[in-house]
TrEMBL record:
Start and end residues of each tRNA nucleotidyltransferase/poly(A) polymerase RNA and SrmB- binding domain: 183-241
Keyword field contains RNA-binding: yes
Calcium found in the keyword field: no
Stated name of the protein: CCA tRNA nucleotidyltransferase
BP GO terms, sorted: tRNA processing
Length: 383
């Protein structure tokens, strides 16, 4: 099996590889770019493994006229930017000591040692710049071919190196594994046994993983497994996985793209915007959607007050809550409301009214207009 793809032929990518090879060092694509390239999924990030140490990589880049950024130099990673494209160049490493959140590593010249410290077999595949694929664990290609997600070696050992790998197990299963295979029993058992370790992680890291998981085409089986093993309650206290598969069915029925915040609202939980350390914009949107699910506000008013996208999401979550289909007519009403313009301005009521009385009258007229289905015009409202 050979790796191919236009991303490999990019002038900047070839320049980084040639920079290392010309100095007598190895340059091997590794991880996600190899995995995605082999299964025909878009490659976004390019990781390169090498036996050159970080300081040597920086010197080589400078001599080649490329920009080197020490993004994680203490862990062996240098970002080399060539032709505007970033490349994460990381020295082969081996674990010396693990702490449950990160590991103390030592640089290595052995690809087998580097592969052994990675998380999953399908992520421990390497490829030379000309496309020759290397499988140091001897299991990565077979697992990728059958779309089986498995930890390298003992799952417990890999998890204790970094408890975030518990969430990555479910996220990668949702994105890359064949649902018919189910989740690997050994990995599932280890995640359940060590799920309390998630409490040692930062909210930002957990939130980032949860959003990536919920962005998968259908994360419902993985999230259900998280709930069954107790992982979900540690990551998002109070969350309930029952509404998610119904919401995803509604999304599919109406050809609506996946959205992690909408799906997060389906899970609920105790202050998820805080538990996952969401951005202010994400937190505001999540709170709005969650607050409106249980209201009786009609589709047109939702569209008028909150815009087409948020109103649509509220209606979808209402439908999921009652396990019913979403009526296309409701979406049409949302669209109408989203473009409706209230025909009265404050100037229409002045100088007869001012201050609180003006505000109260405007609100009264707006409510009458909304109740009419936006049919009352300016003349009718003012009369």
């Amino acid at each position: 099996m050979r790796l191919q793809g236009p991303w490999m032929e990019h002038v900047g990518t070839q320049a980084v590889c040639n920079m290392l090879k010309a100095a007598g060092f190895q340059a091997l694509f590794v991880g996600g770019c190899v995995r995605n390239g082999l299964i025909g999924v878009r490659v976004s990030d390019i990781d390169i493994a090498t036996d050159a140490t970080p300081d040597v990589v920086c010197d080589l880049a400078e001599n080649a006229g490329l920009r080197a950024v020490p993004t994680g130099i203490e862990h062996g990673t240098v970002t080399v930017i060539a032709q505007g494209k970033p490349h994460e160049v990381t020295t082969f490493r081996k674990d010396v000591e693990t702490h449950g959140r990160h590991a103390t590593v030592a640089f290595s010249t052995d690809i087998a040692e580097d592969a052994a410290r990675r998380d999953f077999t399908m992520n421990a595949l390497y490829a030379s710049p000309d496309g020759e694929v290397l499988d140091p664990t001897g299991e990565g290609l077979a697992d990728l071919s059958s779309r089986r997600l498995r930890f390298i070696g003992r799952a417990e050992d890999r998890i204790r190196e970094d408890y975030l790998r518990i969430l990555r197990f479910f996220r990668f299963h949702a994105w890359y594994a064949d649902p018919e295979n189910g989740l690997d029993p050994d990995g599932l058992s280890a995640c359940a046994a060590l799920s309390a370790g998630l409490e040692t992680l930062s909210k930002e890291r957990i939130g980032s993983e949860i959003k990536k998981l919920l962005s998968a085409p259908n994360p419902a089986p993985a999230v259900a497994a998280m709930a069954q093993t107790g992982v979900l309650i540690h990551a998002l206290p109070g969350a309930d996985a029952c509404r998610l598969p119904i919401l995803i069915d509604i999304e599919d029925a109406h050809d609506i793209p996946a959205d992690p915040i909408r799906r997060l609202a389906a899970l609920g939980g105790q202050s998820p915007e805080s538990a996952l350390r969401l951005s202010k914009a994400e937190g505001r949107r999540l709170s709005l959607i969650a607050e409106q699910i249980g209201t009786a506000t009609g589709p047109m008013e939702l569209g008028y007050r909150h815009g087409a996208d948020d109103a649509r999401d509220i209606l979808m979550l209402r439908a999921a809550s009652f396990e019913r289909r979403l009526d296309p007519a409701e979406l049409d009403d949302v669209a109408r409301g989203a473009v409706a313009l209230f025909p009265i301005t404050a100037a229409d009521l002045m100088p007869a009214l001012s201050g609180p009385a003006l505000g109260a009258k405007l609100k009264e007229l707006e409510n009458r207009w909304i109740a009419s289905g936006f049919t009352l015009d300016r003349t009718a409202l003012l009369s």
